[in-house]
Specification:
With about 500 residues, this protein is mainly α. The protein has helices at about 5-10, 15-25, 35-65, 100-115, 120-130, 130-145, 150-155, 155-170, 175-185, 190-220, 225-245, 255-265, 280-285, 285-315, 320-350, 355-380, 385-400, 410-415, 420-445, 450-475.
């Protein structure tokens, strides 16, 4: 038996009209003090924690190394080096280690080897058993292993690598689980706003963790980076455990008006059964593979810059470690601001201006991928013009924030019932750039010349352009037929 064809196979042009008509028939629930926006804010806090715990090691690593084991060129840069402030004369008691560059690479990259393992299982388990505790315990596990990081480092590099892999396994469920939860919580015409608020925590965590970790290392020592952020994560888990529910129907404090509004707005989009998963249809879906290609391409640039931007700031532009943390955070501050504003704009275009969903998703993807490509290439030609280099790198990453309302939430448009599983699939492919992108980039910049870095920027820009083009050609904005059909197994 099938859902109504008018619901499952609605044309992109008609979809905003359908949602508008549904909203006219359903009493809209207020935004202020609502449970769905409370969930968005609390999940934003959760992703803040997840990304802060992910990136803090890259800053702490500077303090964890014995200075005598650093490369002889550590104090050199292509451009004239900026002055470095005198470090306070504290009695730093934290241990330092004689790890070579290869060992450092394994430690920094080990997170992603765990992260890729739980992407698809995370989406499946969230759909079958609920997302609240899966996401909660996933981040809690990362928090616990973060608190154990100083002990693991003292035991040896192998133990630290194992701890980072386990942190990655915990965080691997976060995005698929959150997508699965939003499938039950986000009214169609509020998706861009709710999801961009939620996932903006990732950029915000990076913005705060990069400079703050540097300050903590500067004034205290590197162990406090893990203790302080770990404590912030524990507080989030307590709030998450007591204030969040898997769905509106199981929430104890939601108003009846909001519960009715959410469930009524989603009744024609969700699959009537949770037992059957159309794996063949999912894996052969062209719109899904359009998201896969876009997600992979976007993350190539994102992870390359996330990992190597501090290196570029140090080795090429000659900024000190204290300046480095602040300047490296600027691109992610811009990305956070534009992702938040972009979410509001995307839903305004769909709800008020009646733009087709597919047009909005593709337009925001083009801006969020082609824009960064252009400014990334431009940054490679600024040479030692510090101001222009920082501006172009900041604009490049900032424009990427628009993609949060593009391909990044398109899973919920094409298959809300299976959004967690779809996100697990796309994020599995999108994790690969984090594993290999920085390695390739470093292999191309052995001499740390501007010309070599220009090549890295060209490669990243080319991959971004290809992903944007592929998504533009094959992306869709409507629920796919296989995502709403009830299937009876004989």
């Amino acid at each position: 038996m099938k859902q109504s064809a008018s619901d499952s196979e609605t044309d992109d042009y008609e979809q905003p009209l359908l949602h508008r008509k549904q909203d006219d028939d359903i009493k809209r629930a207020p935004v202020l003090c609502s449970s769905r926006y409370g969930l968005a804010i609390l999940s934003c806090y959760g992703f803040f924690v997840a990304y802060a715990l992910r990136v803090n090691l890259s800053v702490a690593m500077v303090d964890m190394l014995n200075s005598s084991s650093s490369s002889s060129g550590a104090n050199d840069s292509v451009c004239p080096r900026h002055s470095s402030p005198a470090r306070p004369k504290h009695n730093h008691t934290a241990s330092v280690y004689d790890w070579d560059s290869e060992t450092q690479g394994w430690i920094l990259g080990s997170f992603f080897y765990g992260y890729i393992i739980t992407q698809i299982p995370g989406g499946y388990l969230a759909r079958k058993y609920g997302a609240k505790w899966l996401l909660g315990f996933g981040i809690l596990g990362t928090v616990i292993f973060t608190l154990l990081t100083p002990v693991a480092a003292d035991l040896g590099a192998g133990y630290l690598i194992a701890v980072r892999v386990l942190e990655g396994i915990g965080e691997g469920v976060t995005f698929p689980a959150m997508h699965a939860m939003w499938a039950s919580w986000a009214p169609p015409l509020e998706r861009s706003r709710l999801l961009t608020i939620s996932y903006a925590g990732a950029q915000l965590g990076t913005v705060v963790a990069l400079p703050l970790s540097g300050q903590i290392c500067f004034y205290l020592d590197w162990t406090y980076v893990f203790y302080i952020f770990g404590a912030v994560g524990l507080l989030w888990f307590i709030l998450w455990a007591f204030l969040v529910s898997n769905s509106p129907s199981s929430h104890r404090r939601i108003s009846e008006t909001e519960r009715t509004y959410i469930t009524a707005s989603l009744k024609n989009e969700l699959s009537p059964t949770s037992d059957y998963i159309p794996w063949t249809s999912i894996l052969t879906s062209v719109p899904l593979w359009a998201i896969v290609v876009a997600h992979f391409s976007y993350n190539w640039t994102f992870y390359t810059l996330l990992t190597l931007l501090p290196t570029y700031m140090n080795d090429i532009l000659g900024f000190s470690i204290k300046q480095n943390g602040m300047l490296s955070a600027l691109p992610y501050l811009g990305c956070w601001l534009l992702s938040m504003g972009g979410g509001q704009l995307a839903d305004y275009l769909r709800e008020t201006c009646l733009f087709r969903t597919v047009i909005v998703r593709k337009a925001f993807t083009i801006i969020g991928m082609m824009g960064p490509a252009v400014f990334l290439v431009a940054a490679g030609y600024t040479n030692c013009n510090y101001i222009m280099a920082v501006i172009f790198l900041t604009v490049s990453s900032s424009l990427g924030g628009f993609s949060a309302s593009g391909f990044n939430i398109n899973h919920l448009d094409i298959a809300p019932s299976y959004a967690g599983i779809l996100l697990g699939i796309t994020n599995s492919f999108a994790t690969i750039p984090g594993m290999v992108g920085p390695v390739i980039a470093r292999s191309l910049t052995k001499s740390n010349t501007i010309l070599e870095w220009r090549t890295v920027f060209f490669i990243s820009a080319g991959i971004n352009l290809f992903g944007a083009l592929f998504y533009t050609l094959f992306g869709k904005g409507t629920v796919q037929p296989w995502a709403v059909h009830r299937v009876h197994i004989q």
